[in-house]
Amino acid sequence: MGEGAAAGRTLDLGHAALVLVGHGSARNPHSGTPTRRLARAMADLGVFAEVAACFWKESPFAREALALVRSPEVYVVPNFAGEGYFTREVIPREMNLTGPLTEHSGPGGRRLIHYTPPVGAHPDIAGLVLRRADAVAAAHRIDRASACLLLVGHGSRKGYGSGETTEALAVTLRASGAFAQVCTAFLEQDPHVADWPGLTGAAEVIVAPMLIADGLHGSEDLPPLFGLTTADLAAPGTEVAVGPAIAHGRRVWYCRGIGSDPDIARIILDHVTNQIQKSWE
User: Fold this and answer.
1) Tell me, what's the pLDDT at 280?
2) CATH number assigned to the domain covering 122-260
3) Are 21 and 79 in contact (CB under 8 A)?
4) Structure confidence at residue 2 (pLDDT)
5) DSSP of the chain, one letter per residue?
6) Other CB atoms closer than 10 Å to residue 222's CB: what's the count?
7) Could you tell me which CATH number the domain at 3-120+261-280 has?
8) Do 265 and 45 meet the contact criterion of CB atoms below 8 Å apart?
9) Is the peptide bond before 60 cis (omega within 30 degrees of 0)?
10) What residue segments make up the domains of the chain, in order of their start?
11) pLDDT given for residue 172 in this prediction
């Protein structure tokens, strides 16, 4: 179906379910909080008949997700910061998905399961990250013309393109010219985040972890690398960013995971809309 026909249709999701899939954690009780909070916010919008959250590492698990909802049409959105092993291998395997559109047949009848790209792969994430970094720069009078924006991705020792989303985001942000330097570092691939002082000579660094939740990585693994403690992260007024801290002779501000940003709900709806429009073409 062409663009004109698609443009003439009205989106109606009152018969459909939304399932958000997060990473979760068996060790950190707060890892799933952003996904659960987001599911509640999406339910409050009243757009979908049902909204559910599930996880890879905690209950309810992804393999159980389709039993949580009864709608004949289900939109599955990975609440991950980028493409990688989990979005390309784990979630499709656990949920028995064969691609962007999977048809399931069973005792309950025929169901259509739509699988969208992850939240962090949306093109508007660049604007979201830049807006958050701009807010930190404005609040602390940071000269962006001499500062570094450091994007920290998860990456993967196994490959699976886990760093691609973060690298592509860096290219977009460099093109904006908003900061003197935009660097990337990773938890599990080169360049490793522990080596960040060698990546930039900037005296002021804004760190933007490409993580949905603070979790173990965001709250325990990364902060000490930037001169921060658990107490710093728990201080009042640090909902968006923490700092400044002094690390390796630099002033550093550390942003929270992107999963708590209010724009994420709009991005999810846009992913679903794009999936519907593709089915009309």
Assistant:
1) 63
2) 3.40.50.1400
3) yes
4) 39
5) --HHHHHTS----TTEEEEEEE---SS-TTTTHHHHHHHHHHHHHT-SSEEEEEESSSSSBGGGGGGT---SEEEEEE--SS-SHIIIIIHHHHHT--SSEEEEEETTEEEEEEEPPPGGGSTTHHHHHHHHHHHHHHHTT--TTT-EEEEEE---TT-TTTTHHHHHHHHHHHHHT-SSEEEEEESSSSSBGGGGGGT---SEEEEEE--SS-HHIIIIISGGGGT--HHHHHSTT-SSEEEEEEETTEEEEEEPPGGG-THHHHHHHHHHHHHHHHHH-
6) 21
7) 3.40.50.1400
8) yes
9) yes
10) 3-120+261-280, 122-260
11) 96
Over the chain (281 residues), the average pLDDT of each successive run of 10 is 41 91 81 89 95 94 94 95 88 95 83 94 94 95 97 77 84 96 94 96 96 65 89 79 94 89 92 82 59
The pLDDT score that the predictor gives to residue 146 is: 97
Query: Cis before residue 123, ω within 30 degrees of 0?
Result: no
DSSP 149-187: EEEEE---TT-TTTTHHHHHHHHHHHHHT-SSEEEEEES
* Residue where the block lists tokens 């003197």: 180
Query: What pLDDT, on the 0 to 100 scale, is given for residue 237?
Result: 76
Residue 99 sits at φ, ψ, to 5 deg, of 165, -160
Copy the structure tokens of residue 13.
Answer: 């999701």
Do domains 3-120+261-280 and 122-260 share one topology? The answer is yes
**Residue holding tokens 């992260």?**
233
Q: Do the bridges between strand 250-255 and strand 204-209 make them parallel or antiparallel, or are there none, so unpaired? A: parallel
Pairing assessment for the beta strands 204-209 and 181-186 based on DSSP bridges = unpaired
Residue 217's pLDDT is what?
55
